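the two lines:
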Amino acid sequence: MSDPTETSITVEVVYRGIFQKTLAQRICRSIVLAARKRGHTGTAFARYGDSPERNGVPAKQFAVVAVNDLELEASMAKYEPAVVDVSIAVDDTLVKGVESWAWYGRQPIWKPVKKDGFVLVTSESTPDRVLGQTDTAERPYTLVVVPGGASFAGLWVFKDDHTDYRVLGALAKVVPDWVRLEDVKALIREQTKDEGAVQSAQYGFDGAKLRAVKPGEGTSGHEVLQFEKPGWTTMRPGIVVDARKPGERNPQYKKYTARTLRPVVNFDTCIKCTMCWLDCPDECFEVTPEGHYEVVYEACIGCGICAQVCPVKDCIVMVDELRFEDNDDKWQFWKKDHDGYNKWFEAKSGVSADPAKVARASTAAENANPAANPTTSAGGDD
Amino acid sequence: MAVEVKPRESSDVETEQLATGCEAIAEAIRLADVDVMAAYPIRPYDGVMQAAAKLIANGKMDVEYIVADGEHSQFEIVKHACAVGSRVFVGSSGVGWFYAFEAIAVTAGLRLPVVAICGNRALDDPGAFGTEHNDSLAVRDLGWLLPWAETAQEAMDLALMAWRVGEDKRVSLPVAIGLDGAFLTHSQQIVKIPTQAAVDRFLPKFDLGDRLLHPDNPITIAPQVDQDWLMEIRMQNDQAMRKAHDVIAEAHADFKKLFGRGGDSPFLDEYMTDDAEYVVFGQGTLALPMKVAIRRLRKEGHKVGLVRLKWFRPFPTQEIVRSLSRFKAVGIIDRDYSFGSPYYGGVLYHEVRSALYSLEKRPTIVGFIAGLGGREIEQPMATEIFEKTKAAAGDIKSGDICHWIGVRA
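prediction for all of em together
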């Protein structure tokens, strides 16, 4: 990365659509403007329009810094770089892989990162725990954990919690030839006139934890999901695509990488009231032979509505997605090993599975888990 | 009449911004002191709307900003505002541009120098946002001047040129600047912003003269006409378009004197053509990846180059004849299509072949359709274009074919 023959550097920011759009834009713009202070030129590109931008759906923006305009040209007129030097994930659950309808499948978070590149992740977890949920590395890279939880806001607002400054500080630590800490600080000082913000960049620089990742490290537990785009000989004429049949889910876009939290269900306290099944906007619940409702995790985006409408306290609990390895059917687990499942439920959710210990909530509102809404809480503790 | 422009002064210090093509256009609107602009959202034109609205909200610009109830109204609003002497700006994209088509068509006939951008976008269905040039090209026969930009800087520079040329009494025609959707409208680039004082020296106040619609100058605009009139009206338009060529050259020379930008030729941007044997020809941002390819191929010993067209209307026929007749073969890259046209080619392909037709010695002209719907022009595609161009050299009939580049079978 410090190779003096390099003439440009590409940094992508992987973020949760809508919730982190402004954050990603601020980071990308600041990279170019900080590099400009030492004479480089650059471009920042926010995702064009609203595809694939939807609530929580992984999306990307990028910045390129180059030594001159000629070198920049090769990076211009593009939506998305195929190869990057640094990938920045501004929510640690993104390391489980990202799927959007722009990419026709699920990508490992490191997919575009070149050999010996960097993956920066904002997280309150340790590098080893983050790595434990990242796809098995195919080439060496350095995982960099930037201290701090995921910063979520809305489309028209920005949660000014200094995540962008910490990320820029950490970036300056790993690619100092392109983005210098003093330039980052000077830029932030100019933009904010706030020494606290400047200190956050220093904190990101000092607090970033680096973990060298060798090929083969990481998890092989995530599914491989890639689709070929049809050609004109195989597509139906007249711009026609098949509609989904009743009960059929879209096999080419599964949505689950939009999830930062997932619902876990206590089947012992479920009263089979149908509320979760009725209100789920993505039709994720399926009815079991006994009339329970189990979550189809491949289709769940973790919106938390089921937990909010469930009238039974702690029957559906929203839990940090980073604590789960798979999308397997949990009702089968409960059927086969009742005590084992309940232990698993308690360990994941942090609440008791014993119906005797679960007081019934008087109203649904009281049961509403604030962690279920990513715009109001980072959710999930460890 | 020509404008007297003093050369660059020491006080003409430009500032820099990291701006999208849309934001660069908004800066041009500010610097041109536009009186009325009309807005109706469609991507990517809405980028200009947002940037202009921000300048107004921040107190940096004073423009009558009218949100219309549709694109047709948008273009009617500025047409009428222009008729009462306002300097105007408007724009749209893709099918929105087409929804305004009636107003667009009559504006040129009325000789009202509306300045517009067309944020080039594929024509729906099914809701594609990416760049294609058929939206702008659809007005190619209607009397609009049509420049095309490559970078955000050039977008701003061409906008300032557009008011200067369009409002010149010798021309008095509308101008629509083509900006590639996404690649230009939405990529943020370093843009140099000139001072107000320098722009004021370049761009005189808009004056419609005795055509101004005003109680002190009672006239009727656009009465019903019939076959006894229309051919003469068209002939006037044709003359104005012919004169626009020299007015553009004048404005380009003045712009260069004041701001130091714009290249050698007002109409063509030539890249590595001095000793070139095979060149490609096109417009807009596709020049960027092609220049990257040229540098790469030159390292391998290929004498290749690029000629980028900056003004499609008026078509700089003589400049193109002089330039392209030097080469063995020319590949014309169209980010557009003309279904069912001769040899199933694109619009530029036809225009260039037509321009070269009467030459005794002419290069082979090969057609390429590439980058439709905003598809990226990748390096292997660029290589393929040069290879096919080179292979066609010396056999004039081998150009009677248009290759689709990067299309899945």
